[in-house]
Amino acid sequence: MEVVLSKVLKRIEPTLHEIHEAHKLFTKIKDIIVNDYPSLDVKLMGSVAKDTFISGDKDLDIFVLFDPKVSRVELEKTGLIIGKMIFDTLGGKFEVSYAEHPYTRGLIGKYDVEIVPAYAIKSTKQLLSSVDRTPFHTKYVHKNLKSTGDVRLLKKFLKGIGCYGSDLKTEGYSGYLCELLVIKYGSFLDTLKYMQTLKFQEIIDLDNHYTKKKYLDVRKRFEGHPLIFIDPTDKLRNVSAVLSKEKLAISINAAALFMNKPTMSFFFPVKKVIDEKRAIVNVKMRGVHVVVLRFSRPDEIEDILYPQLRRFMNLVAGKLSKEGYGILRASVFGDMNCGIVFELNELKLSPMKMKKGPSIFNPLDHRMRFIEKSKNVWIEDDRLVSDEKRKYVDVNDFLCSFLKKPANKLTYEGVPDRLAKEIYSGFDILVDSKVSKIKSGEFWLWIVRKAF
Fold first, then answer.
1. Are 332 and 314 in contact (CB under 8 A)?
2. How far apart are the C-alpha atoms of 393 and 349, rounded to whole Å?
3. Of 64, 114, 172, 372, whose CA is between 20 and 30 Å from 105?
4. Residue 116 forms beta bridges with which residues?
5. Which of 18, 29, 11 is nearest to 116 (CA)?
6. CATH superfamily, region 145-266
7. Which stretches within 166-214 are classed as H helix?
């Protein structure tokens, strides 16, 4: 175990040159901002500020702190002006991204740089925007973290199993959550020992903001969150709010496997080439069917695109289930191609389906209306039931009937706006062997059912 961790650390510890280079760029950016805006405070945040970044990572999170008296409109306007000035001055390329308010992000040399405007508040009780918490996170980690190496090990482990990143595509562990876990449990190994036994909706309250008597209320507050890690700087926030149930499950399983048999492959997985033809044959051998709805990728950032894809997937899954199709699993992809995918028990249903009517205890006129409109009515339990002929038997026809509509109609029926426009422009329904046309690493990883 120790030999493995020692080898990993040697590969992921940043060199003094890397550390110096990152801080040198920050100082250059800070000097440019302060020269034109002397009243503003410019702070380095993120993993570079906390010395928990992994060798090779080139990320700089720079916060420009405004007086709370400055209006939100002025903060956003000046923040974008400053961001543009930095990228233009240093020859970088940038785009405007959006969190709670807009900020600039882009590339300066080898570095991914974010220039984020925020308010210089004295307490998280004075929050004016969600990003105002970040300086408090940095201060907390500086004060309490004793081993940056253990944080690096945890981050690299989670990256290796595909669970690192609090973006809405990954839905994994944030850097701050990794730091807090190591603060809580003391080391990488102790964190994994704990992680392998995690329970659903477990509460981790590092600074004891709540008594155990309040845990029921805490779970209600964070209903649906698979893990609840109370932010030590703000008891009303769950640090692990973005973490999905699937990524939590993968990390629990991987922690148990590593503790049983530690290998370098958890940190540095070998990228296997997927035999797409063989993958399709394996699906056929399992006696199931793959149905893909593919369309052009909207020009959206991943934090907007992937939640929309999941909403759309759930919408279509609900319609398929209601019609009677047995869904085994489903997913989305948006890397090269874009779409949603289902694994189904069948592609065609019987010509007839059972239609449930009112309870026998409902008013008589309700029951009579159902009887008059139906054929061959019978009773199951207390409900009137009848046979009804399906309008569509084949899944392809069923999906086309829902999707071949104007974009505004699709939006009205629950399809996210940007996806509706792309679907209206054209879509493919690919079934079984036809999915070989799809060019998407995410899709093929899902097909082969790779755990991590």
1. no
2. 5
3. 172
4. 63
5. 29
6. CCA tRNA nucleotidyltransferase, domain 2 (1.10.1410.30)
7. 175-185, 188-195
Torsion angles phi and psi, residue 99, rounded to 5: -110, -115
Torsion angle, alpha carbons of 299, 103, 167, 57, to 10: 110
Rounded to the nearest 10°, the torsion over CA 445, 447, 451, 452 is 0
DSSP 350-405: -SEEEEEEEETTS-HHHHHHHHHH-EEEEEETTEEEEEEE-S--BHHHHHHHHHSS
* Superfamily of chain region 14-121: Beta Polymerase, domain 2 (3.30.460.10)
Tell me which residue has tokens 């090779």: 56
CATH superfamily of 276-348+392-447: Poly(A) polymerase predicted RNA binding domain (3.30.70.590)
| pLDDT tens per residue, range 216-252 | 999 999 999 999 999 999 999 999 999 999 999 999 9
Three-state DSSP class for 440? coil
- Contacts of 377 by beta carbon, 8 Å cutoff, 6+ apart: 357, 370, 371, 384, 385, 386
The full set of domain ranges for the chain reads 14-121, 145-266, 276-348+392-447, 352-389
337 DSSP 8-state letter: S
CB atoms within 10 A of CB 364: 9
Q: Determine the straight-line distance between the first and last CA of the chain, rounded to whole angstroms.
A: 21
Distance between CA atoms of residues 421 and 415, nearest Å: 9
Q: Is 113 helix (H, G, I), strand (E, B) or coil?
A: strand
pTM, two decimals, is: 0.92
DSSP secondary structure string for all residues of 25-48: HHHHHHHHHHHH-TTSEEEEEHHH
Q: pLDDT of 334-366, one tens digit each?
A: 998 899 999 999 999 999 999 999 999 999 999
Q: How far apart are CA 94 and CA 104, in angstroms?
A: 6
Q: Which residues contact 100 (CB under 8 A, 6 or more apart)?
A: 129, 130, 131
